[in-house]
Amino acid sequence: MRGKRSWVVSLLFLNVVSVTSLRAQPPLGSPPGPPGPAKTIAPIDITGQWVSIVTEDWRWRMMTPPKGDYSGVALNPDGRKVADAWDAVKDEAAGNQCKSYGAAAIMRMPTRVRLSWTDDETMKLETDAGMQTRMFYFREPKSKGNDWQGVSNASWELVGGGRSGPVVGGSLRVITTKMAAGYLRKNGVPYSDQATVTEYYDLLTEPNGDKWLMVKTIVEDPVYLLAPFIISSHFRKQNDTAGWDPTSCSAQ
Prior knowledge:
Layout: H1 2-21, H2 38-41, E1 48-52, H3 58-61, H4 77-84, H5 88-93, E2 112-119, E3 122-127, E4 133-137, E5 151-160, E6 167-177, E7 182-183, E8 190-191, E9 196-205, E10 211-220, E11 229-237
Parallel strand pairs: 4-5
Antiparallel strand pairs: 1-2, 1-11, 2-3, 3-4, 5-6, 6-9, 7-8, 9-10, 10-11
């Protein structure tokens, strides 16, 4: 069953890549569509409770890696220096136990997430791991940032809709800035307060009705990264709120 599930998730991811490649703006000269509240014009419904399905990078996601294990992350010398100096005990003592639960890393945690609308222009994402709350603003942000989750500006990327044709799908794009410096992994792999996180949320439905939320995350950081850090995480829709287990941040 584990192999079958991994195969299904891999197939779903390939489908997301195919759908993403079809994203396009209306042809040049087409009249813009009528504006409307983000909740009303949403091409997909990603509200509800989702559980992360960990099918890759197990040693970095399901446990705390050893110090100095930053394989797969293009750290520059300054970034490696910070990672090599990581001390979980000092982080706990300084009240920084949530440094690996920031916007650049929280969706990579083994966690459940809840997505809901707080109003027609604002979506809320909650996690039980670390008990974090993210706000996605489609209009003017109501947050000044400088905390773990920063300021997230959201928009819909539509598929179709050109020349007054119907919208046939789409995805949610979220760009987050103004975050407090944190960790890409629990073992101190750093990102700075100048980092930018770009996310794409895609919805897929299996023939049996199971729904999957695919989250592609791109972290760019001029301070610690030589190249963007790109990951894709998978979440399966739950039919109820079972399993929700709010747990405080931990540095270890």
